[in-house]
Amino acid sequence: MKKFISIFLSLLLIFTFSTQAFASVGNDGSTEQSDIEDSFAIPPLTFTNWEVLSLQIPNSTPMLSKGVVQDGIITYQVTVRVRILNNGASYGNKSVNWTTSASSSNVRIKSADSTTNSAGYTSATFHVRGMEKFPVSVKCAGLESKKTIDIGTRATYLSSFKITQYITAKESDYSGNKISVSGLTGKYKSAFLNDVKVQGSGVGDDGRYIKYYAGKFSYNKPTTALGTTPTVGTTIAVDPYYVPCVMRNGAAKKGHVEITGIGRRIAEDTGGAIKNFDIDVYMGVGRSSLKGIDGSYRVRFMGVNSWGNSGTGIKSSSTPQDEHGIVLDEPSCYSVDGQYMAYVSDIDYSKPNSVTVSVVDNLGKANNSEPIKFELSQSALSVDDMSINSNILAVTGHINPSLQIYQMFDIPNQKLLSEYYGYGFIETEYGLFYVQAPQHFSGESGHCRILNEDGRVLYESPDNVTIRDLRVSGDSLFFDELNLDTGDMSEKNISVFVSDHTLSSYY
């Protein structure tokens, strides 16, 4: 009996010492360990130097559905790092496992280290949506350390943005005789009214706002996609797939951003001609309000319906600083055979036909031939794209968030061949295809329509659904539809030969 008791006490003593060798994790994420060290004990590890290496808005969100923005909620890409030490020394090349207890609809691990590096550091990158704070944990050698990462709302987009400008037409910018039209009591310049038809809104010499929609003029102020009046120094038009700008349950969700070199702006407007990382800045009434700001800029997201806040959690001092805005060179292009080179030679906002494109005949350059100059439509404020096919120059001019103009010029004969109003222009073996939306500033969501170069409507989208990214495969025309009510994106296709003769062009 005494021998049995002695064996029992010995086993109990061994068990007590063994259990003391294991560490426990406190509620605050700290690790507690025994000072006892033997061949069976877990090393006395410490998890230190928790930091956020980077906090940005990603270019895409494969880990979370519906793109960078879902229901007006932005997605963040957060990289977190921690260092693991063993008795104060780097615990390098050891296996680790990163996890999060947050819902998979809010937080996903994009990538994570499987081991520490030689200095004992390990990091993981998360996509986070709808949470300003989220929990993470890392395990190593049987120990777990937990942290709550406070990211706040402010973060810089990984991609830079292309910045353009748009305005409300002003009658004093135009010349010519004044005429009377149905719906208006006063007389206005014909050229001005033609531009109001294109832009959707304008201000007459009498100071009255004129709106055009569904073939009718009326006296009404311009309206943005969210129902506000566009305001200088505030309003921008964005792609709601990348910057929040939606109505949900009767309430607007407006993304607040800071554009480096331009300032803080609020997303109140959208349009089919603004997609991906594009921002159209509202500059005011008339061409005199336009500035030379077109270019590529870094953009910082601040918050939704407020200027937000920076996180109060641990931040790394190595977070990159914002770059300054870069004003890009105007677009230029060459013909395939190298004979012609086209470039934007002049932008003069003081006149209706502001933009001039010049074409140089490289074969005739030795003979000191002068450049051939083409003035774009009076509505065009800048050039989005250019191409030369054989002797034809095609120029896509920017007008406003919902509208571009596509003009084709005969270079040798120095004349305009044709022009089309819409956006998303693509040249194919079946000819030109493009999209039209209702006049901007009309306050009407309307339906987007796909047209061919003959002006026939091939397809009309449901109400409040934007058509994006036309492309042709075989004899089918593929495109994406973005539902502005739900944020859902879906792919559709139609035959290039189908047309709906009951519908017509908006312009």
From TrEMBL:
GO cellular component: outer membrane
Gene Ontology terms: biological process: peptidoglycan turnover
SUPFAM superfamilies (alphabetical): Barwin-like endoglucanases
Coiled coil regions, renumbered to chain: none
Record keywords, A-Z: Signal
Superkingdom in the source lineage: Bacteria
Residue ranges constituting the 3D domain according to the UniProt record: 235-288
Signal peptide stretch: 1-23
GO molecular function: hydrolase activity, hydrolyzing O-glycosyl compounds
Pfam families listed in its UniProt record: 3D
Record-linked Gene3D superfamilies: Immunoglobulins (2.60.40.10), RlpA-like domain (2.40.40.10)
Name of protein: 3D domain-containing protein
Species the sequence originates in: Flavonifractor plautii
